[in-house]
Amino acid sequence: YPCFIVTNLYLLFSSSPFWYDYFMQANETYMNFGLIAAVISAIGLLFLVHKWPKGSQYTFSQHAASHKASTIYYSALFAVMLPVLLLFFIQWFIPTFKLPVLFTIFIVLSAVAQFTCTLVPESGGLKSKYHRFLAACSAVLLLPAMLILAFSSNITSAMMVLTITMLCIMVGIIVFLAIVKGTHKYLLLLQAGYFTCFFVAILGITYI
């Protein structure tokens, strides 16, 4: 019975409807869009914390919520970066490595949650609660996507090890933040580290 459950879970995570493979065709034009999205994100967020500094104990969104201009900038940054990243995934990464439809769903939902939370600044009250919920959804949705990727038969053994390592670090960060209830003097670095792990795995698989 346990084997039956494991087998069915594997089939659920690895299979896709017939139309999915038909539409998901790799386009080499978009291969470098993942790197471009990572660079946009890194430079954009570094500018945010330099232009509107608050300290390493605050998240990027808390930096952004401190001023009207920074809130607009934060939304604009992700309005530019996320479409580039999604084009990379849908037009090249997913069809190249023949990843199942569930991977696509997790990635798209994570991106939607991430952009939506930038429209609800963490400025206190209900807005902060909604923002944190959406931000948490965006972050957590990357975990099953990484799990699917780690056990894909279309990546090398070395990249499987890299992906599992990055996934373990991401889970560790999530667990640690849950223990400390989302407050820490290096919260910003932990947040940056979480998403850096995701990009390291994705770009490692792309270029190595």
Largest beta-sheet details: none
Poorly predicted regions: none
Q: How far from one another are the termini?
A: 39 Å
What is the H/E string?
Answer: HHHHHHHHH
- Sum up the overall morphology in one term: globular
Q: Give the beta-strand count.
A: 0
Overall pLDDT level: 91
Alpha plus pi helix count: 9
Our estimate of the beta-strand percent is: under 5%
Secondary-structure-based class equals mainly alpha
The radius of gyration computed from the alpha-carbon positions, rounded to a whole number of angstroms, is 18 Å
Helical content class:
over 70%
What would a concise description of this structure say?
Helix content is 77%, strand content 0%. By secondary structure, the chain is an all-alpha fold.
Question: Can you describe what's shown?
Answer:
There is one protein chain. The protein has 208 residues and is mainly α. Helix content is 77%, strand content 0%. The chain has 9 helices and no strands. Helix 6 (101-118) runs antiparallel to helix 7 and helix 8 (157-179) runs antiparallel to helix 9.
Topology of helices and strands:
Layout: H1 2-14, H2 18-23, H3 33-51, H4 60-64, H5 68-96, H6 101-118, H7 125-150, H8 157-179, H9 187-207
Helix pairs in contact: 3-5, 5-6, 6-7, 7-8, 8-9
